[in-house]
Structures are given as C-alpha cells and as structure tokens.
Write a structure and sequence with these properties.
Blueprint lengths: L4 H22 L23 E4 L18 H7 L3 E9 L2 E6 L1 E9 H14 L5 E7 L5 H11 L21 H7 L3 E5 L11 E3 L4 E3 L24 E5 L3 E4 L2 E4 L4 H4 L8 H12 L5 E4 L8 H10 L22 E2 L5 E2 L8 H11 L8
Parallel strand pairs: 1-2, 1-12, 2-5, 5-6, 6-7, 8-9, 9-12
Antiparallel strand pairs: 2-3, 3-4, 10-11, 13-14
Length: 362
C-alpha cells in the first residue's frame, strides 16, 4: 500500500488536533488570587467574612429611603461582596423597592443584575453573593427567568444540598475555577427541586436583629430556620434613628457605626460575635459603606487574617448631593422622595397617616 503525501499530512494534522483537544480538556483554570487575596483561595466560602451593602439598590443623598450613596458598580469596585436587596412584584415585573414601590423604586431586578453581570465579567477572580429579600413571595421560576435574561444563571453556584453547614461550603478558589462564583440567597419560597441555585437563606444563614436604634449591637440569634450552631451567620450592622416614630438610616453617625473600634462600631460587634461563638460573622451588612474611609473593609480583612491595602482609594463619603424633589437613582429609575433631612419629620408624620403596616428597612 502506498501512502501519499496528502495522506500523511492529514494524519499529522489529525494527531495535532487530537493532542490540542486533549490538552484543552485536561486544562483547568487555577485561581491564584481570590477576592483580592491569594490567602483566600483555599479558604471555604463558609469561613470568609464579606462586607455587604444593605439595600444596595436604594441609592441617593438625603433621600428618605436611601441606604447607600453609590450604585452597585461602584460598590463592587470598592470591595462590597454581598449585595442585599428587596424584591417586589409590580404588575408581573420584579422591581427593587424600599418597603413600597411608592416610597422608593430602584428599578427592575433585570437591570440591576445586568450591572452585576458586567462587573463580574470584568473581574473573573471574585466571588459575589446576592441576598434577595422576597417581600412579595415571588416564586423562584419568575426569578429564574430574570437571571437567565441577565446571563447570571450560568454563573450561579448550585449547592449539593438545599442546606449546607458552614464547614462544608467549597473554597473560593474552587468557585472561581468552576465559573460558578455567584452565590444567590432567597429569604422565602426557595425551592431546591426547581431552581437549585436560589438558595434558601434561613436554613443556611442566621441573622442578628435589624432596625437597631441604639449603639448596643449584640450578636444574639434573631432569625433562623435551622441549627444556628452549624449555619453561617450575618450581622445587621446599620444604625437607624427614629423620626416621627419611624426608623430611618442614620447617616450622621455612619463614620462611627462603620468604624474599626469604639462604642457601636462594626469592629466592636465582630469582636462580640467572635467571643460569643468562637468564629467571625460571614456577612456584615452596612449602610453608607464608604463612611469611615474603608474601615468596613479593614474590619473584614482583620477577620480574614489578610491585609487591607487597596490599590486605589474608595469613593468619598456622601456621594453627590442634590436638593431637588426628584432624582435618578443607580438604575435610572426615578425616586420621587428626595428630601432634606430637616423635612423628614414632617414628611414621615404624613406618611404614617397613609401607610398601612410598619416601616421596615430590611
């Protein structure tokens, strides 16, 4: 049998292509830096402390319902790694609203998740968590549609079981290497059998009290649906003030609330928790995270045993001020309640007469 030059060329090409394919299939991405630190790559997700933005979509300066000064993209850029939000059903569309969409409408969940996806695509070495307060008990399938539209469903981590002890979560490195580096929690209606990447919060995480109006931030279990001794836990470290009987974010004390040490500080509450449970909190929800000049990230770094050494300064406290009665928030939605703090008392007095139920900031 005579083999032509063409035949041998085809054989060699086939061998090269086979070797290339085998090499590609054998190659696995190995993260060397995870959430900014090489030391965290081998650390379990359940053994890392993350800074979270409470009501991360509720952005505005001197706004009655605002808990943050900067949009989600800036929050992530500065180091926020848990994004908490309230979801409401508005005529079949999931909107991010503060207690009521008449009070503060932060735009659609799909638009918000689109911003998260854009940032995560540009930052492939970071694990990010979402905590969705399912205010209207929206079914998981409706969230799934939105996640798919935003392109985040394929990036979401699917746990091996509906509930996982804190000690059994995968490492940050393995989450990054697998491409499943978005961890999404849902407060109610989670259904592992239908949408397994929407993880039930309270069988996996317990929380401390919220709506705190004094500087005594304890570390007692306030909400859970499981064995708190084996769960991850979240501290609600944001200070409110009572105005006309309603709690509202106290930005004037944010520097001390977010501080590394001192009465009512984030650092002090973390120390209280560590002494009480012999472990640090997994998530720390804060308002106006940039107050303190990065102190909230310093607290997290200390808890994680790493050094907080940002390459660029975080955003300045306060954001951009405005005295108008309307403004555009982070997602381009209109917020009609942008008012000066001196007007809050009178406004809340009127609000109390027309709103049914209690004001809630969680």
């Amino acid at each position: 049998m005579i083999f032509t030059t063409t035949y041998w060329a085809q054989v060699v090409l086939s061998l090269i292509l086979s070797a290339t394919a085998a090499h590609a299939s054998a190659y696995k991405r190995q993260a060397t830096t995870c959430n900014g630190h090489a030391e965290l790559c081998d650390r379990s997700f359940g053994n890392v402390t993350f800074v979270g933005a409470h009501d991360s979509y509720a952005v505005g300066t001197d706004n009655l319902a605002a808990n943050q000064d900067y949009n989600v993209t800036q929050q992530l850029k500065d180091g926020i790694r848990m994004l908490q939000m309230q979801a409401h059903n508005q005529s079949g569309v999931i909107q991010l609203c503060h207690t009521s969409c008449d009070l503060y409408n932060g735009g659609t969940l799909q638009s918000y998740l689109g911003s998260v996806k854009t940032w995560m695509d540009a930052n492939p070495n970071d694990v990010v968590s979402l905590l969705i307060v399912n205010s209207d008990d929206i079914p998981p399938a409706q969230y799934d549609t939105v996640f798919k539209a935003a392109g985040l469903d394929t990036m979401a981590y699917v746990p091996s079981n509906a509930s996982i002890p804190a000690t059994e979560w995968p490492t940050l490195g393995s989450l990054i290497n697998s491409g499943k580096r978005l961890v999404a929690f849902l407060t109610t209606e989670a259904d592992y059998s239908s949408v397994p990447y929407l993880i039930d919060e309270f069988t996996n995480i317990w929380e401390t009290a919220f709506d705190v109006t004094d500087t005594t931030f304890d570390c007692n279990v306030n909400r859970t649906n499981g064995d708190f001794s084996t769960q991850m836990f979240l501290i609600n470290h944001f200070l409110d003030e009572l105005i006309a009987g309603f709690p509202a974010p106290d930005s004037q004390k944010a520097n001390q609330t977010n501080a590394v040490s001192g009465v009512g500080s984030l650092g002090q509450q973390v120390q209280t928790c560590a002494a009480q449970y012999d472990r640090n909190p997994n998530f720390m929800l804060v308002d106006f995270y940039e107050y303190g000049g990065g102190s909230v990230f310093q607290v997290a770094a200390t808890a994680n045993g790493v050094t907080y050494d940002p390459t660029t300064p975080i955003a300045s406290p306060g954001g951009s001020s405005s005295t108008g009665v309307t403004s555009s928030n982070a997602n381009g939605a209109s917020s009609s309640l942008r008012i000066a703090r001196s007007q809050l008392g009178a406004f809340l007095g009127v609000l109390g007469g027309v709103m049914v139920g209690a004001w809630s900031v969680i």
